[in-house]
Amino acid sequence: MSHLEVSHDNGIATLTMNRPEARNALSMEMRSELCSVLHDIERDASVRCVVLKGAGDHFMAGGDVKGMGESIKKPPEEIRKEFMLRIHDLHPIMFAMRRMPKPIIASCQGAAAGAGVSMALACDLVIASEDAFFTLAYCKIGTSPDGSSSFHLPRAVGIKKAMEIALLGDRFDAQAAKDMGMINFVVKTEDLVDETKKLATRLANGPTHVYGNTKALFYRSLESEFESQLQAEAEYFSDCASRNDFKEGVNAFIEKRTPNFTGS
To answer: How many Cα atoms sit within 13 Å of 155 on the Cβ side?
Structure first.
């Protein structure tokens, strides 16, 4: 059985982490499949929005801790080498999500723990059900965070709150996550599927190339100097202005109608 299910519908690619018996813990197989699928979607012009979700009752309950049981029996230097490789294996996924020229939505229910929090934070938007809960939890198994959460979390909630979340490892609900800026939307549990589809459809019908440029601008702003960021704005705006969706958007505004974007 595949650890990642992929479906396509009207420009939306839905990636379902498929280990419900393990609360979708991030296995090595899931990592490999996710990396490969993200690279395929990046080049697929028919995909205009991506949804990442978990099968069953949970989003993702972290890394495959049970699978680490044999690894920790090795000598310390071998453990260090193995886990260095394990963590680096995650990095192509994070790079692919950051580079993806179309929006990625995390749709969270149940547990988002450890790497599950990291994965949700790496998405562009997060929608969660009222029953969702979050915990960074790395400290509970005696290690520091990975999966890019040490980059994304302080930028989302501020350094002091990030320290609290990481050092205490407490569990908090979806509304608390929204209030501190970790996620965007909280919906009734029974409405999560429909509300996720509404959000994804809205984005899939939008100006896809514009979304890609906006992602690139915002993410580079986290590390750019002011002057270089303004130059990037000019370059990305000019690029958008040369495309069909800009012509359609301007004409629709003048004609007082809803634009029909094609993503081109």
So the answer is: 14
DSSP 128-182: EETT-EEE--GGGGT----TTHHHHHHHHH-HHHHHHHHHH---EEHHHHHHTTS
Q: How far is CA 253 from the centre of its chain?
A: 32
Sequence-separated (6 or more) residues with CB below 8 Å from residue 157: 165, 180, 181, 182
Domain boundaries, the chain: 4-204, 208-255
Chain segment 179-236, per-residue pLDDT in tens: 999 999 999 999 999 999 999 999 999 999 999 999 999 999 999 999 999 999 999 9
Q: What is the pTM of this model?
A: 0.94
CATH superfamily of 4-204: 2-enoyl-CoA Hydratase; Chain A, domain 1 (3.90.226.10)
